[in-house]
């Protein structure tokens, strides 16, 4: 970016404050935020007329007020595709880690207070993955990549999506479509959340819907915390009304509900599903391509259309 444009960097890698963001949008032609930068109405209404593009470093754009951006004629781009496989890998890792108690076992071995006394037949029993029903909420790029992995592990693939995917894809994944999310939730062994956070998906897994899950069910979320009612999730886990959760994202990041952290039914990760060096380089390149295309007077390839979300 520094070679191509007159660039101001956030060298500390720390989230910018709202005041710093306002100062930036007053002078910048292009803003490159990350998930930790909240580009809300208050920030955008103070932007100078020179701000024409928000090239988000990340796929999810729920950190940007898209309606206000559009009304002010500011284009928004993101970085789709390049973090699909990494995110699906981590989703699969959580699908394995929670029922098979991987984090618990590893913590036990590391803990100087506990001393492993050797194998025993009833020690660290978890639950089998193979043959179980996986319900994917959101069958976009990442949902499909999760389905491919899960199928190889012997899981039966079920999904709910706004639109049914093609018959050819359903056949390849041997996937069952559920028009009714409620009905799917009630029948699954594992749920994986892979949809974006939009006004329509906020608390999609509401208190009412979470109660539809079987008490033996697991839930994995590598999408956005806001899609799940986190308080209710914590309550159900505490009450033993759910078997466990693998969570890479949280409703009020970086704050995490302490009840979730206290539960040994939960594997919590610090929003790291896309955190690979290769992925970050690819994301950066996508950002640069979008800015360069825009600066050269072309339509940037990764334009976000609010209506499509
Ligand atoms: C990104 C993410 O690393 O792309 C996304 O939507 O959630 C992350 O994995 C983050 O957005 C960077 O801004």
Give a structural overview:
- The chain has helices at residues 18-27, 41-44, 66-71, 84-97, 102-110, 141-152, 167-173, 181-187, 207-210, 230-238, 258-262, 277-295; strands spanning 30-31, 53-55, 75-77, 133-137, 156-160, 176-177, 190-193, 218-221, 244-247, 266-268.
- It has 309 residues and is of the alpha/beta class.
- It has two domains: 18-81 and 276-308, NAD(P)-binding Rossmann-like Domain (Rossmann fold), CATH 3.40.50.720; 84-268, NAD(P)-binding Rossmann-like Domain (Rossmann fold, 3-Layer(aba) Sandwich), CATH 3.40.50.720.
- Strands 6-5-4-7-8-9-10 form a seven-stranded parallel sheet, sandwiched between helices. The protein has a three-stranded parallel sheet with strand order 1-2-3.
- Helix 6 (141-152) links the parallel strand 4 (133-137) and strand 5.
- Helix 4 crosses helix 6 (141-152).
- The longest helix is centred in the C-terminal third of the chain and has 19 residues, at 277-295.
- Bound molecules: 2-keto-D-gluconic acid (8YV).
Which descriptors would you attach to this protein?
309 residues, alpha/beta, Rossmann fold, 2 domains, seven-stranded parallel beta sheet, three-stranded parallel beta sheet, 12 helices, binds 2-keto-D-gluconic acid
The H/E string reads: HEHEHEHHEHEHEHEHEHEHEH
Shape: globular
Give the N-to-C terminal Cα separation.
28 Å
Strand order of the largest sheet: 6-5-4-7-8-9-10
Query: What's the pLDDT, averaged over the residues?
Result: 97
Associated small molecules: 2-keto-D-gluconic acid
- CATH homologous superfamily annotation of the largest domain: NAD(P)-binding Rossmann-like Domain
**Count of discrete domains:** 2
CATH architecture of the largest domain: 3-Layer(aba) Sandwich
What portion of residues belong to β-strands? 5-15%
CATH fold call of the largest domain: Rossmann fold
**Ranges with pLDDT <50 over ≥5 residues?**
none
Number of helices: 12
CATH top level assignment of the largest domain: Alpha Beta
Count the strands?
A: 10
Question: Largest beta sheet, briefly?
Answer: 7 strands, parallel
* Percent helix range: 25-40%
Structural Rg:
21 Å
User: Would you tell me the structural class of the helices and strands?
Assistant: alpha/beta
């Amino acid at each position: 970016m520094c070679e191509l444009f007159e660039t101001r960097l956030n060298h500390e890698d720390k989230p910018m404050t709202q005041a710093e963001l306002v100062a930036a949008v007053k002078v910048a032609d292009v803003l490159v935020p990350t998930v930790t930068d909240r580009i809300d109405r208050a920030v955008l209404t103070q932007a100078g007329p020179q701000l024409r593009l928000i090239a988000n470093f990340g796929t999810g754009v729920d950190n940007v007020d898209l309606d206000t951006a559009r009304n002010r004629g500011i284009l928004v781009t993101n970085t789709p595709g390049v973090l699909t496989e990494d995110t699906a890998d981590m989703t699969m890792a959580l699908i394995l880690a929670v029922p098979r108690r991987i984090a618990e076992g590893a913590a036990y071995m590391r803990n100087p207070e506990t001393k492993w006394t050797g194998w025993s037949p009833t020690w660290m029993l978890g639950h089998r993955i193979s043959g179980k029903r996986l319900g994917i909420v959101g069958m976009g790029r990442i949902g499909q990549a999760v389905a491919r992995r899960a199928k190889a592990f012997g899981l039966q693939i079920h999904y709910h999506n706004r639109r049914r995917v093609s018959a050819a894809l359903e056949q390849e994944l041997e996937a069952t479509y559920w028009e009714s999310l409620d009905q799917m939730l009630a029948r699954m062994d594992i749920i994986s959340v892979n949809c974006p956070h939009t006004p329509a998906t906020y608390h999609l897994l509401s208190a009412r819907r979470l109660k539809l899950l079987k008490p033996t069910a697991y839930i994995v979320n590598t999408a956005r915390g806001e899609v799940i009612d986190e308080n209710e999730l914590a309550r159900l886990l505490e009450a033993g009304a759910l078997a466990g959760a693998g969570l890479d994202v949280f409703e009020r990041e970086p704050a995490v509900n302490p009840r979730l952290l206290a539960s040994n039914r939960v594997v919590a990760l610090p929003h790291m599903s896309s955190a690979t060096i290769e992925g970050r380089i690819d994301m950066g390149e996508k950002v640069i391509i979008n800015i360069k295309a825009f600066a050269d007077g072309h339509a940037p390839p990764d334009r976000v259309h609010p209506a499509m979300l």
